[in-house]
Amino acid sequence: QVQLVESGGGLVQAGGSLRLSCAASTYIFSRYVMGWYRQAPGKQRELVATITSGGSTNYGDSVKGRFTISRDNAKNTVTLQMNSLKPEDTAVYYCNALRGALGYWGQGTQVTVSS
């Protein structure tokens, strides 16, 4: 069982920045693909970004060029730097840890972008 705790959400004006962090409680953190997903009201959960243990990244089309995912395997953390935020980025953001068929979710952190 892996526990994921997100932090860093909040309210920001359009064009601003936020930094989300996720701390994982596992001694084999480096073996997990880590990711961020988001879910807006009335919409399905969607990919924001993922990062492999080796540092390869993948981004959803709507955030490419604005968001950056990174990880620190020594600290068991994954971070999402969000720049040039738009009102449509408003959602609950969830941290995810994936290893084979095992996947874990955090409880989510709210990000609200005002216009």
List keywords for this structure.
mainly beta, 11 strands, four-stranded antiparallel beta sheet, 115 residues, seven-stranded mixed beta sheet
H/E order of the elements?
EEEEEEEEEEE
Instruction: State Rg.
Output: 13 Å
Structural class: mainly beta
User: What summary fits the major beta sheet?
Assistant: 7 strands, mixed
Counted by DSSP, the helix tally is: 0
Share of helical residues: under 10%
The number of E-state strands comes to 11
The chain-level mean pLDDT equals: 96
Task: Give the overall shape.
Answer: globular
Q: What is the straight-line distance between the termini?
A: 39 Å
The poorly predicted ranges are none
Our estimate of the beta-strand percent is over 45%
Q: In words, what does this structure look like?
A:
Helix content is 0%, strand content 54%. It contains no helices and eleven strands. The strands form two sheets. Strands 2, 4, 5, 6, 9, 10 and 11 form a seven-stranded mixed beta sheet that branches. Strands 1-3-8-7 form a four-stranded antiparallel beta sheet, with no helix packed on it. β5 and β6 (57-59) form a beta hairpin.
What is the fold's blueprint, element by element?
Layout (H helix, E strand, L loop, with lengths): L3 E4 L2 E4 L4 E7 L8 E7 L6 E6 L5 E3 L7 E6 L4 E6 L8 E9 L2 E4 L3 E6 L1
Parallel strand pairs: 2-11
Antiparallel strand pairs: 1-3, 3-8, 4-5, 4-9, 5-6, 7-8, 9-10, 9-11
